[in-house]
Amino acid sequence: MNNTIFYDIHTSLGAKIIPFAGYNMPVEFSGINDEHITVREKAGMFDVSHMGEIWVKGSSAKAFVQKVTSNDVNRIAPGKVQYTCFPNGKGGIVDDLLVYQYSEEKYLLVVNASNIEKDWDWLVKNNSENAILENASGDISQLAIQGPYSTSILQKLTKVNLSDMKSFTFVTDSIAGVNDVIISKTGYTGSDGFELYFYNINGPLLWNNIMDAGREFGIKPVGLAARDTLRLEAGLCLYGNDIDDSTSPLEAGLGWITRFSEGNDFIDRKFLELQKQTGVKRKLIGFRLTERGIPRQHYELYNLKQERIGEVTSGTMSPILKTGIGMGYVVISQSEPGTEILVKIRNNYVKAEVVQLPFYKKSNQ
To answer: Which CATH architecture has domain 2-49+139-233?
Structure first.
């Protein structure tokens, strides 16, 4: 197992460490609920250095990224970030990712930790454009600072006007005493926040300076467990749970990142275009339990006649809503918000209602 540059800091803080995606990662520090609520009400800092970073450069970089991703790279410009996915050529998803555009000849792809090798092999295999590829995952660390006070905390440490940064944009500048840091605003929690990318050696200095700056705002370190409950409240997909090689982006509600623009001949375009025309047979939905219980991945979903209609892909007890919430694939006839369904928890059928995602919105604060 690998360690991130922050491993010694995590252990010194008493974090519970688990193996994840080839790394020893902190799953929790002060407790899942405490960390979750801290992010919703104050600010939390996540070590997400296990994520992968792949550079795509050269005169054919744009054409290559356009081919291997489902979104339309023409819709972004330098300093913009785009959420997208790699179609797998069979109607499924290799991975979901973020594309950072520096120029039409330079992109940074940020991919899921568990898929770094898989994604790299996929890109190399499909690189008929001979774009210059560089896997920088082992050289780059990442911290995510999330929560309503994240801007106030980081603004103490940089001359960049963070309040002016719009969602899905980035700059490269100095912060917390470190130069050449990628400062981006994408988020995976449903709360305001920023992501910082930097060389490994600068990690401890950044961590300590951010924690010092955030002390007056109640910042705390946050582990992977609360990161998962936060993203689920925000209705965001997790690769390996809600999307994978067997799920279509259209089934997963990701039609908005599947662009059939003129000239955008990405892998699987014809298949997905036909699927859009004919309609999908199942759909990823959000649901909220109306009785006591906690839904978990792989629990079966039923209609009110106790006929099986699908399966839970993600589920938890929402620390904010104080009820069980989940996502799962169901047949189209049972996918409309307001539909009553059943979740089989052990041997009991627990009532739930299909709801519009996300479960949580920032305006609730």
So the answer is: 2-Layer Sandwich (3.30)
